[in-house]
Design brief:
InterPro entries: Homing_endonucl, INTEIN, Intein_endonuc_central, LAGLIDADG_dom. It contains 14 helices and ten strands. The protein is an alpha+beta fold. It folds into three domains: about 70 residues, Orthogonal Bundle (434 Repressor (Amino-terminal Domain)); about 90 residues, Endonuclease I-creI; about 80 residues, Endonuclease I-creI (Roll), CATH 3.10.28. It is elongated and about 115 Å long.
Length: about 325
């Protein structure tokens, strides 16, 4: 293929109506050439030559000179040479007129743009990873509170930490409403965006926070990174030393790793039905801590290996009156 004579950003030629078409037809006649032949001469495609002939686009000034010289004819008169990007001025003017009509000023309302930018920055922007900022993303560090203690209980029950992420896994249907509660609790405490990943093949949803420094913060609070059971997870000391924090943490534990069930049985012709609470864990230190919290509330639990139960009806009622539940699934089972 012949070397291209067309510049990267060529000047264009503005003919009078129908004159560009006549020029291309004249060249074809003089050179006894079709569109493909002419395209090889000027280094463009046959389609471009046809578009010039149809006057769909302006031909380049460099191609005009090449073809005139090749056909041994003079440059056409009454033409206007347009510099590269000549159309941007027309487009910008038209756009400016449209914006002026719509908003009454060029560029819109600067105060509105500034307010929206700050809104975006505080809600989303400052939490996004930026390669221009080679530093961990920020988060709010809350002080010790009942809300934080409850979230620690949720993490001990159905959560876990890796080096880069904190994750809580809940049933996608049974815990649908509870997922919203936990998500809101995380946002309230740490003021960070969360992601929820659905894994329908195992019927769960993962609530995921991706923050290296947040993981380190949770680790300092007493949550281990990696396998919880192998590390004999337990309720952190700062929670066990405060009765309000202990009850909040226990609520988070039972709302995730506990269940409410109805024990039904018959004695002769008489039927009996009682609500009971069950909590299971393979961590012996955690089981001991849960038992001690309940005993301090004068609720007597029954323990069988890795399961703790509250079977006494007064104990079950006292649990829900004092500790309660934020998991609608448990509340429905208790009240129904």
């Amino acid at each position: 293929m012949a070397n291209s004579y067309i510049e990267k950003y060529p000047s264009r030629v503005k003919f009078r109506p129908n004159k560009q078409r006549r020029f291309i037809l004249l060249i074809q006649n003089k050179l006894d050439a079709n569109a493909e032949d002419i395209s090889k001469i000027v280094g463009t495609s046959p389609r471009t030559i046809r578009d010039w002939r149809r006057e769909r686009i302006n031909m380049s000034f460099s191609a005009l000179k090449i073809l005139s010289r090749k056909a041994k004819i003079s440059l056409p008169s009454n033409i206007r040479v347009l510099k590269p990007f000549w159309y941007t001025r027309i487009g910008a003017k038209a756009g400016g007129v449209t914006v002026l009509r719509k908003y009454g000023r060029i560029g819109g309302d600067p105060e509105y743009r500034r307010a929206r930018w700050y809104e975006w920055w505080n809600k989303t922007g400052k939490y996004r990873h930026s390669y221009l900022r080679n530093s961990p993303l920020p988060f709010h560090k809350p002080g010790h509170s009942k809300n934080l203690a409850e979230l620690v209980g949720v993490f001990i029950g159905d959560g876990g930490l890796t080096k880069y992420q904190a994750k809580i896994t809940l049933h996608h249907k049974d815990d649908k409403q509870y997922i919203k509660f936990v998500s809101n609790l995380i946002t309230k405490l740490f003021r960070v965006p969360i992601k929820i990943h659905h894994r329908p093949n195992i019927s769960v949803k993962d609530i995921v926070i991706s923050r290296v420094n947040l993981v380190a913060y949770l680790n300092r609070l007493g949550l281990p990174v990696g396998n919880k059971i192998k590390q004999n997870i337990d309720i952190p000391a700062w929670i066990k030393e405060n009765s309000d924090y202990s009850m909040a943490c226990l609520r988070g534990l039972v709302d995730t790793d506990g269940c409410i069930f109805t024990h039904r049985y018959r004695v002769g012709s008489k039927k009996y039905s009682y609500k009971k609470i069950s909590f299971a864990t393979a961590s012996h230190p955690l089981m001991k801590s849960v038992k001690n919290i309940l005993k301090n509330l004068e609720i007597k639990p029954y323990i069988n290996k890795e399961e703790l139960r509250i079977e006494n009806q007064n104990g079950v009622i006292k649990y829900f009156n004092i500790i309660g539940s934020h998991n609608p699934k448990h509340l429905r089972k208790y009240h129904n």
